[in-house]
Structure formats: structure tokens, C-alpha cells
Amino acid sequence: MPIITEADALRAAEQLRALGPRTVIITTAPSDSATTPNDVLTTLVVTDQGRWRLTLPKCHGEYTGTGDLFAALVLGARSRGDPWHVAVHRAGSAVGAVLSRTRSNSELALISDPPLVTTAPLIGHLTQI
User: Fold this and answer.
1) Which residues pair with 126 in a beta bridge?
2) How many other CB atoms are found less than 10 A from the CB of residue 113?
3) At a CB cut-off of 8 Å and minimum separation 6, what does 98 contact?
4) Are residues 119 and 52 in contact, defined by beta-carbon separation less than 8 angstroms?
5) For 2-17, what is each residue's pLDDT tens digit?
6) Quick check: is 1 in a domain?
7) How far is Cα 58 from Cα 15, in angstroms, rounded to an integer?
């Protein structure tokens, strides 16, 4: 199934959920270019409780480990009791904060004072769809 539009991505998420997983998170999802600027990244969250779109400012450059960091932060937030969409928002904001302190194409600036992965302010826009 080609995924070109946000609607395609949401259909694919529901097809995956039909196979068993109750939650699907799609990072770097396609978005409706008429309503979403090109300088943002879109993440979709699909759960039993609803669907959400998170848009975050795009950090230009190539970085290794951002997906691993994002996944770890989502699971950490979930282990503290955050709903999936809140966990994804916290994780995306923290990754953005880390990247803002990382020199282009270098190791992620994970060590900081205070620790960005736990103190980053929420950025971007989380919308129920």
C-alpha cells in the first residue's frame, strides 16, 4: 500500500491495528501540504482512544540515533503513566531540544544541565484528528 497522504497513513495505521497492535505511531508521516508548512515534521498517533497529529519544527541536518532516542523517551513517558499522545509530544519536544544543542552531523547532545530529555518544554502542535 503506497502511503502518500495523511489519509493513506491513517488507513495503514488502522490496518496494522486490525492485526493486533492497539497503538500505532507513524513518524515523518505525510501531511496535507495545504495546511502544514514544509518546515515541520508530522507524527501520527492512532490508539483506541483516538487519533492525534503532532507537528514539530524540522531540525535540518542528519543525526544518528534520533529514532532510538524518540522511542526510548516515548516508552519512558508511558511507564510514568502518560497517555500515548502526550508521551509522543514529550518525546518529540525532547528530541527537538537535544537537536537544537547538537552540532550538525555530530553525536547527539544528550548530556546537559539540566537534562534536556526530562526538562524540555513542549513545542509544536498536538491536535486530535
Assistant:
1) 54
2) 6
3) 69, 108, 109, 110, 116, 117, 120
4) no
5) 899 999 999 999 999 9
6) no
7) 28
Taking the C-alpha atoms of residue 6 and residue 8, their distance in angstroms, rounded to an integer, is 5
Instruction: Say how far residue 1 (Cα) sits from the centre of its chain.
Output: 22
| Owning domain of residue 41 | 6-128
Whether residue 126 contacts residue 54, with contact meaning beta carbons closer than 8 Å, is answered with: yes
Residue 120 belongs to domain with CATH number:
3.40.1190.20
- Residue 98 has which C-alpha cell? 537535544
Residue found by looking up cell 501531511 in the block: 31
Calculate what percentage of the chain has a pLDDT beyond 70.
91
Count of structural domains within the chain: 1
**Residue 55 domain-assigned (yes or no):** yes
Confirm whether 19 is domain-assigned. Answer: yes
Phi/psi of residue 33, each to 5°? -65, -20
Q: Greater confidence, 129 or 103?
A: 129
Instruction: Let me know if residue 68 belongs to a domain.
Output: yes
